[in-house]
Every structure is written in C-alpha cells, then in structure tokens.
Specification:
The structure is a homodimer. With about 300 residues, chain A is an alpha+beta fold. The first copy, chain A, has nine helices and twelve strands. In chain A, strand 1 and strand 2 form a beta hairpin. In chain A, helix 7 runs antiparallel to helix 9. The first copy, chain A, is globular and about 50 Å long. At the A-B interface, helix 4, helix 5 and helix 9 of A face helix 4, helix 5 and helix 9 of B. Chains A, B: One of its GO terms (molecular function) is ATP binding. Chains A, B: It comes from Fraxinus pennsylvanica.
Chain lengths: ~300, ~300
C-alpha cells in the first residue's frame, strides 16, 4: 500500500488530489515521471548512473538506489502513471532532522531553453544561490516529543544573507532549537554531526574530491540532503548523519569539463560547515535571531 | 622614459594616440586609472591588499607589487594623468610565452549595475566562460628567432569548445607550435612547465587552497597570467614558469563567503592542465588543428 512520505521537505507534495511522490513499506520511493523533458531527463540520468562502472562505490553511496520505473496509482487520482522507483531515503529513520540544499550559483544549464534560463536566473539572483553558491530549499528540525518538528516555510529561507545561512546551519545541530528564536543556537551537536571521520564534513569532502575530477555529469538544480537523528545524539547513540544527492531532472553530460558550478557551491557549503565545527560558540553578530522570526511559520508534530 | 610594453596580450593598449599602460626601464608598469568606478575600485583593491596582513606571502607573490599612484604623461597625449604604479610582470623576461585566462563562469558581481550585468552575461554565454568556467583572453607563444611570436587575435579564441581550449593549452607547452597548424602539438615542455614541484600546476594548486579558505575578496573578471620562457627550456635552463593574477577593477568584499565563482573556474583550469601533464601524447579527437586555422591572424617578430 503506497502512502504520502512523512518527511519530504521540498518539491511537489502528494495529497489533496495533487501529484507527488509516494512510498511503500519496504523502503521504496515512487517519484512521478514529470510529463515534460524533466522526467525523461531524470530517468536518463538514473539509467546512465546506475550502469556507469566509472562511479566509485564510495561516491555511489551518496545517491539514492534506482530500481527502474513502474506504473503505480498516482496520488492525484489520475490512475496508473509511470513513476521512478528509488530508495526511500527516510526509510528506517525515526525523527530525522533534514536540510535540502540546492547546490550551485547557477541552476540552469547553458543549453536550456531561454524562457527557463530567464526564470532560473531571476530566482538565482533573488535567493542566496548567486551570492553564496547554494540556497536552502527545505528544512526541518526535530525538537522533542512534545514540540515535534520545526519546519519553516520554504520561501522564508531561500534569500538569506551569509550570516543568516550560517545561523540556520548552526540551528540544525543545536540542542536548543525551538520555537523560541531568541535563543542563540548552542551547536552542541556540531562536532558529532558535522565533524568526525564519518560526519557530514567528511562526506562533503569525499564528494568534493570526486567533483574535482569527474567530467561525466553536470548537475544543475540538484540538491544535497543532510540528515541525522537528533534523538539518537541526545541519547548518546550515533547520529546516522549522512548526505544524499537528489533531483536530477537537469543533469547534462559533462563533455570533458568538470562541474565547476556545482563544485564552487559545494566548496562554499563546506566552508560554512567547517567554520561551525571550528568555532561552534561564535555568535553571529549581524543576523539576530529576531531577524528570522518571520521565517517561523508553522509546527507539526513528530512521528513518535 | 616611459614606453609601450612589448608583451601585453590583452586589455587596452597604448600607442596610436590611445590610452594604455606604459612601462619604465626599472621594472614598473603604469596603468591609467580608468575614469569610471573601475579605476577607483582597482586602486581600492591594491591599497587594501597591499596592507592586509592576513594575506600569506606564498599567495602575495602571485599578485603584482603595488607602488601607489603617480601622475605621468598619458599615452594618448592628454597630459599628466593618474596611473597605478605596479610591478612590470615582464621586466627581465626575454621572449615570454604568455596566456591571459579570465577566470570564472560569471564575470559580474551580484551588486553590479544592471546594464553591465546584462553585457557581461551575454559575453559569458557567448564565450567559453559559462560552459568551461574560464576563457582565454590573451595568447602569445614564442616560436623561434626567425618566426618570432604567434599571437592570434583575441576574438578568435574566446568561444572555444573544451577540446579546442585543451588544444591551445597543449600548444602553449609544445616545441612545434608554429604557423603550421596541421602539426599536432608535441607537448614536449608540459612536464617541465606545467608539472614539477614549482611548475604551473603546483602554483595553481597553492592558489586554489587559498581560495577554498579566503572570504576577504571576490574576484570578478580577473585574469590569471601564465608565463614562461620557451628558449630557456629548449636550452636546458629553468623555464621561469609563473602565474600572476591581474585586473582587479571588479573585486568586491567577500563578506564571509568564499569566492565560489573564481574557485570553480580555477578548478576547471587545474583539471585541464592536470590532464595535459598526465596524458601529454593524447590527441584531441574532436577539435582538428584545421578547425582553429581561422584563429591564426598575424605574426610579429620576437624581441631577440
């Protein structure tokens, strides 16, 4: 029996008669094949990537597993429709804290259609993509059993300044993230989630080394998901911190050139994360917590 | 006595009543302060950079020395005009082979004026800047005493494909670069000029490490000059291969963010140079030498 995913933080959502992805209870994620070029482009990517023997295993693990395509009952009631069958990245997770970070100062390929380029360029300039090299595209932090998740609305955190982005990245690994935005994030989980030999920074650096070399694909408008379990850390268990790349509707052939646009954005994200690990106590001076009070839109309950 | 530089490969040139840079016989380069914001912006950069104690010496050596400003007789006959006084990067060189490579897929800052942004964006899309992350902006190769320099016209090599760019970068370190474009470049100087512990690649990697960390400046429309003496290599001497950054009229404050745009382009250039070192014999299959015959415009004699 397919159902709407619990922890989708960005993208089209199923429910209320709308078309969106579904999950089953065996760890698979069903993403509707978009009717325009995007669907076929994403299918082309997954097909190419899954059979490409030049992708090392330590890089392949950063991508969702691909199980082909399947006709399933679409969430909008339109009957059987083709879906990409992918790994459900939240399968087995309990109360995941998740960031969806769209990488690159440019979300459009040189060969894209002019209308699409102009639309993307406008958004890249209006958001933090152009100045910072990435933008937050989805965000949920688990607070605790009583308060559930803090899940600010997407439009409210895409155009942040560098200091505001840093504040969000700090809140993501803080024990005191809550509805009370006057609290400075304590970053008490920074060293265990972002740092360490298997932490987020280490994974980002592995990905970076591959991007410095690979000239197979250029990833436009692709996101890095960062996920971990805050409850596990609080209870002294490993945080299951991991990164995954998602959204490949705008992947093109690299044709012998590295993906300098993705790499630049990735290096910028790495710099932000590194700084939080090395100076977790540093208070941001320019962005006050109150400045982003406007970003706090609604809360929803956790699943436990 | 000031004179017109012998080896300027890009930018406004003095002579024929036009305003351009001049050099003296003591190793100084006089660059007219452009009347618009660019001149004052470049002066601001040099003033800030030269007094900034956070710039390590191994990075400072990649920038021209700055000696302040001075009123000198302008090359266009307009009388005494303010000039930046800089290090003449070709002082002491005999027959330098030089590439001017404008770094970054985007040559405009987010805060630039709209007209300027649109002009730059158009050019970035028309040239190799957008797809490759940099574009050749100046190019001269010393051939030998008889043939002098091969100096194709700028407009002819800015919109190259990746394979064509690689061909130019290979020709730059070949002994058989000549008017005869049917010859495949032999890359016989690749290991000594690009490679080695003090070669171009090593210098580019030092610069890259700094750009992964520094958030002081963002360099838009800035070039890396790559220079060496082909005659020296042919005679078994050291090639005096070095990189220098030039053109800082569009440098802005980094404000806590790395220069992901410059860094991405730099990493792309590094990948091209690395591939030539590791596979100097590889023939480019997609770009035939005849394809760029159109680029060969004129020759001038060497200085020895």
């Amino acid at each position: 029996m397919l159902k709407v995913p619990n922890h989708q933080v960005a993208g089209h959502k199923a429910g209320d008669g709308k078309l969106g992805p579904l999950v089953d209870d065996s760890g698979r994620f069903y993403k509707p094949l978009q009717g325009n070029d995007r669907g076929s482009n994403e299918l082309t990517f997954y097909t190419s990537f899954s059979s490409n023997t030049r992708i090392p295993d330590h890089i392949r693990r950063f991508f969702p597993k691909f199980y082909g395509t399947q006709l399933v009952e679409a969430s909008d009631g339109s009957g059987l429709q083709p879906h990409l069958v992918l790994q459900d990245l939240n399968f087995g997770r309990v109360n995941p804290s998740i960031m969806d970070i769209k990488i690159g100062s440019r979300t459009w390929a040189p060969q894209a259609l002019e209308d699409y380029i102009q639309k993307c360029l406008k958004k890249d300039r209006e958001t933090s993509s152009l100045p910072i090299g990435f933008r937050l595209s989805g965000f949920q932090i688990y607070q605790n059993r009583e308060l559930g998740f803090w899940k600010p609305e997407r439009t409210s955190f895409q155009s942040l300044s560098a200091d505001e982005v840093k504040l969000f990245l700090r809140k993501f690994v803080s024990s005191n993230t809550s509805a009370n935005l006057d609290l400075q994030p304590d970053c008490s989980f920074a060293s265990i989630v972002y740092g360490g030999s298997t932490g987020i920074l280490s994974q980002l650096l592995e990905l970076k080394a591959w991007f410095e070399d690979q000239t197979i694909y250029h990833f436009y408008s692709c996101s890095i998901l960062i996920m971990y379990e805050k409850d596990f850390v609080s209870n002294g268990k490993i945080p299951c911190a991991e990164i995954k790349l998602i959204d490949f509707a705008h992947v093109y052939e690299g044709k012998g050139v590295i993906d300098h646009n993705f790499l630049g954005g990735l290096c910028s994200l790495i710099k932000f994360v590194s700084e939080i690990i090395t100076t977790p106590d540093e208070c941001t001076t320019e962005a006050s917590p109150k400045d982003i009070q406007k970003n706090q839109i609604y809360f929803e309950n956790g699943t436990s």
